[in-house]
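Researcher: I'm preparing a figure for a lab meeting and need a structural model of a single chain. I don't have an experimental structure, so a prediction will have to do for now. The sequence is pasted below. Please return the structure as tokens so I can convert it later.
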Amino acid sequence: MNAVQQWTAGICLAVLAVSLLQHLMPEGAMRRMAELAAGAFFLCAVLVPLMRAAPDFSILLSLRPSTVEEEFAGTVQRQQEQAIRDSVTSLIAAQLSQEGIPVQGIEVDVNMGEDGSIHMNQITVTLPAEYAGACGRASSILSSVLGLEAEVTANAGEQEAQ
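Model: Understood. Here is the structure written out token by token.
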């Protein structure tokens, strides 16, 4: 209760000081600057005691931003992984299409490390059954283009080449 009385007394004194200052100031540009300073002084007179009396919310505030940062980082990482998958998928489809090999399906398993490194765990390309003989050629094309070994199968695993 004593803190509320002190706060009220501080506000009353601040109002008196600001009023006295406004009455003593001449008209013109100097008065505008004095009013700005008086407003800032009054605002501080109101807020500083509130900030001292308020409980420490820093614990709650420190938990919330880190959670938001972690969620944001996770979202960004998932978007980057999806962009890499899409890019590799379109590169594979375009390269094999250019060689006259149709693609039935492409799966790219991508993970990003804590340090931002990109790990392509597995690339699986599925060709139509009638292109089973082209699995080896497609695998060598993809190996030279991607610099990685890709698992190429015909119609969901009838023939494999690595």
